[in-house]
Amino acid sequence: MVGRADHFVQLINMYCLDVESIISQLASYIDIPDVDFSKLDALTTEVAERSSRIGAEHVRLACVDLMQACDQKQKQNFLRALNWTKTEFTRTRTKLQVIVQMERRIMRLEAKRQQ
């Protein structure tokens, strides 16, 4: 049980770190004068897929607007959608951190019980 819970905690932490990094990349790439929207779309798809796998539906839905802005090659729409995605990711990360804290408490209690 502890091994499974630890794996779950690692998945959440990896998701948060990866998506945070990708969102930072998106923010820096959109500032380049000749924006490569295909690169932004690929990164956005990565966030959407990772979010879907972990069940972060609000982040995944926010990514849909990012992808549409990439298709339209609209920098302002992309920036607006990126802000929404950042907000949804921050909310999701906060909720996931609560779950991680709870899982760690459970793991500590189980370890004490087995001693």
What's the main sheet like? none
CATH superfamily, by name, is HPT domain
Second rung of CATH, namely the architecture: Up-down Bundle
CATH fold name, please? Four Helix Bundle (Hemerythrin (Met), subunit A)
State Rg: 17 Å
Classify the secondary structure makeup into a structural class.
mainly alpha
Give the helix level as a range of percent: over 70%
For the record, the count of structural domains works out to 1
The low-confidence parts are: none
Distance between the termini: 15 Å
Which overall shape is indicated by the principal axes computed on the Cα atoms? elongated
Which CATH first-tier class would you pick? Mainly Alpha
What fraction of the residues are assigned to beta strands by DSSP? under 5%
Number of strands: 0
- What count of helical segments does DSSP give? 4
In short, what is this structure?
By secondary structure, this protein is mainly α. 90% of the residues lie in helices and 0% in strands. InterPro entries: AHP1-5/YPD1, HPT_dom_sf.
